[in-house]
Amino acid sequence: MNTPAVPTIFAETRRLARARRAAQRQRASADPARFILDDIAEDMIDRLGFVRHIPARALLIGHGGEALADYLTKGGAAVASEPLVNPAEPLAGGPFDFIGVSGQLDAVNDLPGALIHLRGALTPGGLVIASFIGGQSLGALRAAMLAAEPDRPAARLHPLVDARAAPALLQRAGWKDPVVDTHSLTVRYGSFGRLVADLRDQGLGNALARPAGALGKAALTRARAAFAARADADGKTADTFEIVTLTGRRSLAGT
User: What one-character DSSP code corresponds to residue 209?
Assistant: First the structure.
């Protein structure tokens, strides 16, 4: 039987480029946006403490996990940090007792394959926690993009994973004790431009294989106006980030 081809929605070169640009912006800015990166790291620390998982060897994939790395190191773990590794390919250097993935899974073509590779890089009984932006995110931004090009909207925001589909993906990938949960962060913006800057600071720009060209001046004006039209009385527009977290283990039998 032929294996179905994986659709090419994202470009790996663009996923890497957005991550590199975000790292540069974090270094260059005096006050870069970090609220999603910090929220994911803090949440992983809380989860590790709750399940009392104390790894000896840990792998962190993605940017922004400095607090998590510090927590693991203080707990006695040897921590490998791979900000740019492709989770959709076999992971080197394992096996690991814990793998933490910050972002990244929102822009891989073969998400089931990535979940299988993560499980395969764990020790028997090892734990993986992966968090990324989910499908209920950025409603105000999406509406602004539609308003910018009402006649023929282009693909400018890449498709995001629906959390309701995640449990079946984890079971298909062979994760033991899989858990999927979500929480939301609502942020209020004084301008459309500040929201876009926050996305770029945190490596959340699109990584589409066939991205649309830049918005023209008129379209950008319409986007800004549509975003501002959703503002509250104080002139700020709220938008929401849904954080999807996948948690699971490799079985004690190592399967």
Answer: S
